[in-house]
Amino acid sequence: MAIRTRGLLVAGALTMVLLLALGAGANTLPREVDEWLRTNQLGPYTPAEIDWDAVYEAAKREGKVVIYTSSSRTISLKDEFERLYPGVTMEVYELGSTGSIEKLFREQQAQIYNVDIIHASGYPEQLHLLYQNHMIFPFYPPELEDVIPEEFRVPLVAQRYESRAIFYNSKVYPEPPISSWWDLTKPEWRGKIAIVDPLTDASTLDLITSIVLNADALAKDYERVFGRPIQLTEPNAGYQLLKGILNNRPRIFSRHSDLADVVGDPNSTNPPLGISIPLSTLRSAGDPARGNLQLRALTDITPAFGIVYPALMNIAYKAPHPNAAKLLIKYLFGDEEGNLGMAPFFIVGNWPARTDITRQPEHPFVPELQLPPLTELDYWLLDPVGVWETSAEVADWWMINAQ
Fold first, then answer.
1. Pick from 261, 289, 268: which is nearest to 364 by CA?
2. Which among 124, 142, 122, 126 is positioned nearest to 134, based on CA atoms?
């Protein structure tokens, strides 16, 4: 399991496992795929230096770029991109992560090639359904290689990190109300917890699967919190934690936005703690348009505040506009200040994949609301192989035990 601890990222081993398991060399590719990559200078044929003027000229001849995205924020970039690159139209389809993955997969199964870029999370699904079936390929500007960590270039490219965490109402709780995940199993939190439904929300399933995969760390934390070794009635300490949370009768929400409204309600006197809300939801704290939500995230609880996962952007096989796709990915990476295509994602609760963006985003409504850099936080880095192999088992367990 790749896990981020304070100042240390143990992900190199995962990268090597993925490379060995999935095969990244041209020799492993079908001839037709290899020829397409060679013709378009993608995959193993991406040059060490790119003439971006030549790419732009080729993109103008292609005329447009088509992107399937999980975020409505991507649509806001259309005008600027088209202004920066006259002659290239940006065609955006907001489909959600699951919708984007499913549409690309089904289209390519039918040998329909409509899209150039898929811009979404769902790393396990993209890795196993799309990448392994030669339906998407990584691309990033080679000049950025030194500022994008390897695990977010290989085997797939990420634009930014997103996350899921526990939220609380800062009006009711001026200070963080818990300091460990195990606190959620204590009697005082019975009926005061809520969670996004992992059977309908893929990222919540990723979160609870990551809890199961990190059972050893949770067992150690249990002993620290309660002063005695854990006694298991479930398969491991991760399942034991989930069982304890379910025993406290959490409310289950189908959408994280609905849960955030309940947790952050400024008029509530007894709001629940909300499990599996995206950290980027912090941008809504104090927003008059959202009812002045009083939201904060628990980022300093043990053994980890939650999961961090990459929001990916990769080029589809037989992309009809491959040069325009390269241009758009370059734009989406933004600049060293978090501008251009990074701008709508450069918010409190998201972190750019680029490590040379060193300034912190400003909160639009609560200026003092900031998060530490990822290097100063404990979190579980989503393991796309482990989650893919284990999530069905975890979903079955949840279905039985959440009744």
1. 289
2. 126
Dist CA 218 CA 6 (whole Å) = 17
Backbone angles phi, psi at 52, to 5 degrees: -70, -25
**Phi, psi of 158, rounded to the nearest 5 degrees:** -115, 145
The full DSSP string for 26-82 is GGGS-HHHHHHHHHHT-GGG--SS--HHHHHHHHHHH-EEEEEES-GGGGGGHHHHH
Cα–Cα distance measured from residue 230 to residue 218, given in angstroms and rounded to the nearest whole number: 9
Residues carrying CATH 3.40.190.10, the chain: 23-160+309-365, 162-307+382-401
The structure's pTM equals 0.86
More confident residue, 358 or 259: 259
Q: Is the pLDDT of residue 114 over 50?
A: yes
The model's pLDDT over 303-349, given as tens digits with 9 standing for 90+, comes to 999 999 999 999 999 999 999 999 999 999 999 999 999 999 999 99
Place of tokens 């990420």: 158
> Which residue type, as a one-letter code, is found at position 198?
P
In sequence order, what are the beta bridge partners of 308? 163, 381
Mean of pLDDT values over 137-157: 95
Asked if CATH classification 3.40.50.720 holds for the domain at 23-160+309-365, the reply, yes or no, is no
pLDDT category at 358 given cuts 50, 70, 90 is confident
| Domain 162-307+382-401: assigned CATH number | 3.40.190.10
The amino acid that residue 390 corresponds to is: T
Closest CA to 345 of 156, 5, 69: 69
Query: Six-digit token pair at 283?
Result: 């941008």
Amino acid identity for residue 86 in this structure: P
Predicted confidence band of residue 1 (pLDDT cuts 50, 70, 90): very low
Indicate left, alpha or beta for 337 from its phi (over 0: left) and psi (-120 to 50: alpha): alpha
Two structure tokens written together for 208: 């609870």
Alpha carbons 22 and 388: distance in angstroms, whole number: 14
Residue 95 — very low, low, confident or very high, per pLDDT cuts 50/70/90? very high
